[in-house]
């Protein structure tokens, strides 16, 4: 269980593995080529100063895997720490910590022990240089560089080490060797086992501390040990957990307000005059509604939607407007405070002067393999910069655009197919539920409209999961075919495609219900048809908001359940099965030890895109919380509960299920921040339109102020006022019910003149009043929210004042310390 070479002194910083296994006769040539590449690569690694030790396959548990252990000695570490511009401590900081939180006593149970939260004191730091070693606080050379810095240095060397020349070009980098299967894996070693602390002389097992204080679900209410996460996994992974934790914390405020709005709707449900009128047998029971489908559907009584109208009031009430405005302000505060948190983090993690790492700008092996042309580099003045020809670039871009357009079209086609399903089965549900007397108890809860909406939403969610499965693979293939120049370009291109696709995939059906369903229906006798076959869907007399809430709930809740099963439950049981199999193999091969490097080798690889999918999942959830939150105030609460689980699940996976990722730096969440800003602006417009056109708030307000004649209950008579009259004799043969009845008129949801009016069935004056009120509300709400957003953005500085002062103080002290050091050194030489 050692993390050292056989001498017990030199620590293992990195591990390479490979298998020399000939499965076919033709593989002998590839085997010889791989052996030659490995031999050349390892010779060059030793020339850089790295020390290697190989474990023979006969000593491995499976009997066929070789392991090459790599140790970086002190001279290599200090050389490349200077090359990478690493900042190391020079003196303990004398800057006092920020003022204590006045609620610290109340928040005490949420805090971690100081030794876990801040494992090391704050230091003034400076870029490491070899000729100033005496300046730095080097107490022990073996522990001066944290293990994350050591594996970052080794990976930097591995990514630039040559292994031969082919076709006149020098080949280099571990990534190319992994792609060609010369090595099967390359990974830094974990500090030790996650279930027990290390014993001397091993260093402190930070993996065990993280698992004990961070990766256990019983600690869900505790803060995260962010400094320890950064120290062990690097800044790039650390900042993801800072963002996820901050986002979850901000969600708690939105969840409380959303829950209060929901409780208000629950308490005021019985007092809602609209649902009372719909449920009243003397009012809603006497209103005969026009059929909701052609020929097969019959007339129906308005009070059959009694339960749906009560449920609709839960989310469609006076608090809806308040919550929509609140969330517009909340999202601004979230993004502004995140900028402050990010600035504070840059200072605390020595990222103020951070520049993109060279490893992020490194050319991808696939790009080097495909590019045959070179041009003069403007900086080096050498003809060494690889390029793709203009013709090839145009072909690649056209291919990319057509592929993305095709898959976007496929998503929209699937959404249209679900709409067609809803239009087709509604008549079936209506016919069955009306003809079967045994369904009478069910009919009081599940109306044909609600049944169609529920089944359509579930079908839509299944289609979303299927399309996601295929597109994840297709988008990676398309991005690979584009031949991006660097890993950063590759990730940016993949981010754009995956986000656009998932945006359309997850939100298209919700946009349809929110902004299109029930808006272009027409009226009895002159309905609008899709493809001239299926009649457009109508909203429930209580409004379309309840259907939007249903759609949003099923997709959001289903996505979170599926994600947690995929990320936690499935890996947990798979891990149990693999551990049982490994223990069984160990019992049968008891003479062979299951070494530390083999244990880590058997874990899953985190991969270069591990964080990409985590960010993508969070951003899609952010869209559910902000874009359509006016229709579902419980969305922030669902997201909060999911994220509390998500933090611990991600922590558990990183500490127990994955190999240790290579540490890398990052000073922000990158392109995701721009995406969040775009969605925040869009959310103001979508929520304004939902309140205006999907909710029933504006028509009720217009009736309340302009058309009500009842002083004691101004909304009394609203339902009758919102329904127009249609003469059954005006039905066409296509739309009239098959069964003839002695009925003269039926009602439908719209503001149109009655049959006896000279402009019969044309929009009446109230229609234009309601439309004008809706447009006015949208303009006013957007201007108010955007004005508040701009004021908040202006008032809240991107970098807090105390952080600015601390940065200035540290720069001043660093210059002074360096000056004093050089001055003393000069005096000693004299």
From TrEMBL:
Residues 229-810 form the Anoctamin transmembrane domain. The keyword Repeat does not apply. The chain crosses the membrane at residues 239-267, 320-338, 404-429, 449-471, 494-515, 619-641, 675-695, 767-792. Residues 4-226 form the Anoctamin dimerisation domain. It is found in: Cell membrane; Membrane. Keywords: Cell membrane, Glycoprotein, Membrane, Transmembrane, Transmembrane helix. InterPro entries: Anoct_dimer, Anoctamin, Anoctamin_TM. It is a multi-pass membrane protein. GO terms for molecular function: chloride channel activity; protein dimerization activity. Pfam families: Anoct_dimer (PF16178), Anoctamin (PF04547). GO terms for cellular component: plasma membrane. Belongs to the anoctamin family. PANTHER family: ANOCTAMIN, ANOCTAMIN-5. This is Anoctamin. It comes from Loxodonta africana.
